[in-house]
Design goal:
The chain is about 55% helix and about 10% strand. It is mainly alpha-helical. The protein has 2 domains: about 5-160, Orthogonal Bundle (Ribonuclease iii, N-terminal Endonuclease Domain, Chain A), CATH 1.10.1520.10; about 165-235, Double Stranded RNA Binding Domain (2-Layer Sandwich). The strands form 2 sheets. A 3-stranded antiparallel β-sheet has the order 1-2-3, with helices on one face. It has a two-stranded antiparallel sheet with strand order 4-5. The longest helix has 22 residues, at about 50-70. About 35% of the residues are buried.
């Protein structure tokens, strides 16, 4: 009974800190319950996976809604690349850590001991599940507002550049300019259920691995790997212009 009261208080404090008015605490509890708890429990518990599926869709829609309202004249490809930068696994995990939701996640003993609370994918999944819970509990507007508020920096970054970066093309252009072989992208890992797979891609330049990237699609992972490779090649990405420049070059 004490554990139940303590859990309820933890969730109430979290909801208040995040600025969400939760009517059904069971949904919030489920959003922050890992499958390892369900496997070890004797009663009937539900984990976050179904809510994560819903929350992923709500997150994508909220970001698309924001970008379309901000830039109503962009092409579908530009919207897709802008959204990909906001909803990437890395971005979602960064926001989850900023919101400090990890301490409220329920883990089984084995998962806890193996460091599950620090796993990027797990924390990101829980944030997406939390977004799904807000949507079910309070509706679209509340979920959209929560996303807009929580992802403010990521949305501002996406909208801060006049051109949308295509890092893969930039890396290919860099290799051509340097008269070296074009980069080779290799999928080195893919995991997760079909509806939310995560890919990890490694890019090779000059016969050496130069960058790794993760994403919920191969294309997103390739873009993130290409960006890391470009940074290692000495490039940086200016705000408010559409070019990639090497460090030390004038804007």
């Amino acid at each position: 009974m004490n554990d139940t009261k303590e859990r309820a208080e933890t969730l109430r404090v979290l909801a208040a800190r995040l600025g969400i008015a939760v009517q059904n605490m069971t949904l919030l509890d489920r959003a922050l319950t890992h499958a390892s708890v369900v496997a070890e429990a004797s009663g009937s518990l539900l984990d976050y996976e179904s809510l994560e599926f819903l929350g992923d869709a709500v997150l994508g829609l909220a970001v698309a809604d924001y970008l379309f309202a901000k830039y109503p004249d962009r092409t579908p490809g530009e919207y897709s690349r802008m959204r990909a930068g906001v909803v990437s696994r890395r971005s979602v995990a960064r926001v989850a850590h900023e919101l400090d939701i990890a301490p409220a996640i329920r883990l089984g003993k084995g998962e806890e001991h193996s460091g599950g609370r620090q796993r990027t994918a797990l924390v990101a999944d829980c944030l997406e599940a939390l977004i799904g819970a807000v949507y079910l509990d309070s509706g679209w507007e509340a979920a959209r507002d929560f996303v807009t508020r929580s992802f403010r920096r990521e949305l501002q970054n996406a909208c801060g550049e006049k051109e949308v970066w295509d890092f893969k093309s930039c890396l290919q252009n860099h290799c051509q300019a340097e008269r070296i072989a074009l980069p080779v992208f290799k999928v080195i890992r893919s995991e997760g259920p079909d509806h939310c797979k995560e890919f990890e891609v490694e890019v090779w330049v000059r016969g050496q691995p130069m960058g790794r990237g993760r994403g919920t699609s191969k294309k997103e992972a390739e873009q993130n790997a290409a960006r890391e490779a470009l940074e290692r090649e000495g490039h940086h990405f200016g705000q408010g212009n559409g070019v990639v420049k090497k460090k030390g070059e004038k804007e």
